[in-house]
Design goal:
Two copies of one chain form a homodimer. The first copy, chain A, contains nine helices and no strands. Chain A binds a DNA duplex through helix 2 and helix 4.
Amino acid sequence: MQTNIENGTKRDLNRENILKIAREIFSKYGYKKTTLDDIANAVRKGKSSLYYYFSSKEDLFQAVIMKEVEILAHELEIVINRNTDPVDKLRDYILTKLTTFRSLANFYHAIENDVTAIEFIEEIKRRYEQDEIRMIKRILIEGVRKNEFEIYDFNLAAIGITTAIKGLEMPLSAGNYGAVNLERSVDTILKIICYGIMKR
Amino acid sequence: MQTNIENGTKRDLNRENILKIAREIFSKYGYKKTTLDDIANAVRKGKSSLYYYFSSKEDLFQAVIMKEVEILAHELEIVINRNTDPVDKLRDYILTKLTTFRSLANFYHAIENDVTAIEFIEEIKRRYEQDEIRMIKRILIEGVRKNEFEIYDFNLAAIGITTAIKGLEMPLSAGNYGAVNLERSVDTILKIICYGIMKR
DNA sequence: TATTTTTCGACTAAAAAAGGCGATCAAAGT
DNA sequence: ACTTTGATCGCCTTTTTTAGTCGAAAAATA
């Protein structure tokens, strides 16, 4: 019944393989420095063959990013559905997001001057911001129901927290402090948020 | 008295800085994928300015490699002049060479198809092979003087050992086994060499 | 101020890359 | 065997990038 595996088999399998390898190369060299020949060689196909699966370099790149984003979304979904304390859930959510995001950041790297790619990624971020707000809101609502949070305007709160997370993301894509106190930063911010949120 | 620092000051300083940064970028992306603009931006100069210091991209690249080679040569010189047991010296020599060589190997990486660069590096290797043989010979001679080795044809022995070392280098530049039993490999080969060499 | 060193922007020629297209090749189904 | 459809590839064109040039203009030095 699984269309992906039963139906378009070969084609989809090839596609997936290309995506997997393209991901590696893109993340290593960035969009601009990666050529379709690089990818084609790596998958042991002619460059032309790539066009059988993707309509353009940008199309391929977007597919790679999309897949990455889906993985992230999936992981976040799992975190959100775990039956944990709302505070922990908030914490896990943020940490998962940032950790996975770090790998996405590799795509930024060396893209720098490449306007097209950056704009595309920004576009994706914008689009997923709404989802993010929604997810945060769910956590907040759950927190209130469990009588741990005390919030009057969910929307505003969710937006605020989302903004805070964005603040944490920035140094990941811009500057390059590797494994720096990511966790510590999160906890600090979380503490601030909580003490203005927790029921006393 | 130090001409480098006292005389051509500014120019040489700039040159050195360019070399340093170029080294990083080359080793990251390889010769082909590195553009002069990449380097120029990194050193905060216009691309044209680079041509004031180097006559071409290849010239710059060669200068980078040269510097790397000199560093290696210097380190080897130190090892050779240390007052250690000949066997240890041989061991240290090989290990130092291979370790430093590993960083050089980065320049290979992503060069793969780039014939020009590869040929140039090969050329350097060829040129330094003579030096290498000479150094090994010094160690062997010292070993005999200290009554630890028993060798009849220094030249042949030195050439043989040099060849063995080359064998160890190969997987470093070609394949990519990172921190793999380098030391173990060296010891093994060394053991073989010694038991055919050591006075009993 | 005159001279020399250093930087750079604008330009060109050459190389590399993206992308297109039709000819093949391989695998199914008939 | 043979026709159809899916997949690959080589060759070609067009566009983009890149190395490299040159003269003019800053900056530094004398």
